[in-house]
Task: inverse folding
């Protein structure tokens, strides 16, 4: 038996199971679900329900690993039965006593299925013996909602549906994507809009809890859209455990739930559905069939501890700082992205080095964005700043100018006007990457995120949340002009000039 399951020969996990009030309660009252020993992954699920856990969570877990049973059915049944006790404990409650609970799935049918399963469980013999009839005698109990006698209200919705004045404090999302939605750009846009505007705005920031669980069946999904929100904590599980390098090990002894999904059974599943589907559904790592515009192996790395890195720092010819501003600061909106890179000489070869701690992203006000630009400008001795100017974004360049004039600073700002779509812009600079001219630090989290965005960008596909890549592509476009290589036939034109600030215009 694997060491990562709750068994008599694993007292550490047994103690962990018994110390979690939700896991212990479900073990006593919901025996029908316990056909296999509890894996450590399930203990993580139960721990995520505690008051001390992050209030906005996303869990990517394999199919058929009981993630929905625990995080939807077990969680709601426990909340309904123990609400009164939890409410009496107040701030000392191990689990927050949620009174308004919403379950959302990819469609209404699936959400109602879970609601029905919860209602059935609340009528099981053990629960009725200790808690009596849990349902409110005078309020609805149907396929869409029910009320308990203690006032807990549970409602079910399909993803994308309009809410009827609901104000839940606990939102449980389960498999919000389906095969149909992830293959339609229009459906994805609608789902993103539903999440950003309907779900996020519905939740109370002080007391709300959002717990989303799913499987990454494609590269661009609502699940991945939520994962990229800065306010969410993301947990990633696969059918196999990871090694010390964070890579899944597809070998015996590394099974996540060996009593149910042994290595032999998992290998049979690979044969049955193919590795591409297995990677998505059992590892949450979809394999793309589309050729990316930029390949991962084109990007070269550097080590900040190496003598080479020190040599590169001593051979900087020019430093760019590029900003791709966001219009909205709301959670779910695009980020404002800042990318700093230096042109360096590496034994006679000209390379472009992304600067360690020189990449930032966030939802900032105009003033904070200007301050961050100024800080990076000073830290890396930047030669010029590029700012994309579309609608509101033009105000950012003006704000930088005003700030720098107030500070009596001399800084060159280029207003970059976009004349091509995102795909054409990426294609225009991809040869620079293919030639191995880009250096990045694999230990810098935002460097890695930028590279991930670049290699996941596909021609003709829906490409969402590419803020870092946009700033990076903009920087490479300005590098080409600086290096006397034109992106388009349009030459940069002088827009404005002042004593302390030089602003030029360019078309990308």
Result:
């Amino acid at each position: 038996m694997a060491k990562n399951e709750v068994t008599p020969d694993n007292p550490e996990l047994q103690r962990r199971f018994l110390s979690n009030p939700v896991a212990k309660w479900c073990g006593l009252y919901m025996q029908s679900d316990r056909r296999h020993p509890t894996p450590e992954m399930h203990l993580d699920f139960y721990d995520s329900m505690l008051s001390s856990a992050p209030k906005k969570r996303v869990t990517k877990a394999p199919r058929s690993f009981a993630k929905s049973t625990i995080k939807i059915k077990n969680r709601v049944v426990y909340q309904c039965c123990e609400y009164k006790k939890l409410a009496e404990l107040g701030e000392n409650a191990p689990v927050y006593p949620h009174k308004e609970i919403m379950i959302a799935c990819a469609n209404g049918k699936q959400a109602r299925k879970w609601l029905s399963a919860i209602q059935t469980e609340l009528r099981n013999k053990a629960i009725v013996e200790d808690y009596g009839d849990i349902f409110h005698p005078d309020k609805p109990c149907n396929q869409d909602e029910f009320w308990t006698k203690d006032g807990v209200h549970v409602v079910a919705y399909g993803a994308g549906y309009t809410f009827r004045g609901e104000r839940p404090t606990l939102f449980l999302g389960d498999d919000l994507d389906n095969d149909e939605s992830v293959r339609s750009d229009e459906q994805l846009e609608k789902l993103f809009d539903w999440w950003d505007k309907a779900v996020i705005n519905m939740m109370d920031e002080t007391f709300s809890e959002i717990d989303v669980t799913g499987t990454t069946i494609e590269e661009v999904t609502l699940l991945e859209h939520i994962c990229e929100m800065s306010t969410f904590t993301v947990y990633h599980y696969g059918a196999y455990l990871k090694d010390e390098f964070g890579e899944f090990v597809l070998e015996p002894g590394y099974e996540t739930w060996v009593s149910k999904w042994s290595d032999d059974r998992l290998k049979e599943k690979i044969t049955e559905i193919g590795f591409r589907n297995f990677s998505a559904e059992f590892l949450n790592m979809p394999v793309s069939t589309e050729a990316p515009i930029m390949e991962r192996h084109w990007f070269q790395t550097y080590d900040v501890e190496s003598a080479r890195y020190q040599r590169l720092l001593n051979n900087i010819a020019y430093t760019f700082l590029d900003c791709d501003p966001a219009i909205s600061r709301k959670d779910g909106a695009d980020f404002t992205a800042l990318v700093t890179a230096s042109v360096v000489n590496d034994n006679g070869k000209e390379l472009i080095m992304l600067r360690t701690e020189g990449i930032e992203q966030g939802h900032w006000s105009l003033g904070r964005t200007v301050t961050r630009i100024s800080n990076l400008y000073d830290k890396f001795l930047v030669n010029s700043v590029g700012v994309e100017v579309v609608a509101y974004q033009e105000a950012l360049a003006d704000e930088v100018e005003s700030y720098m004039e107030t500070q009596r600073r001399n800084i060159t700002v280029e207003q970059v006007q976009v004349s091509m779509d995102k795909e054409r812009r990426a294609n225009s600079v991809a040869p620079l990457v293919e030639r191995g001219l880009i250096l990045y630090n694999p230990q810098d989290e935002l460097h890695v995120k930028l590279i991930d965005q670049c290699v996941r960008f596909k021609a003709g596909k829906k490409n969402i949340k590419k803020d870092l890549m946009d700033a990076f592509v903009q920087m490479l476009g300005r590098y080409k002009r600086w290096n006397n290589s034109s992106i388009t036939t349009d030459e940069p034109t002088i827009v404005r000039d002042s004593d302390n600030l030089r602003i030029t215009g360019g078309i990308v």
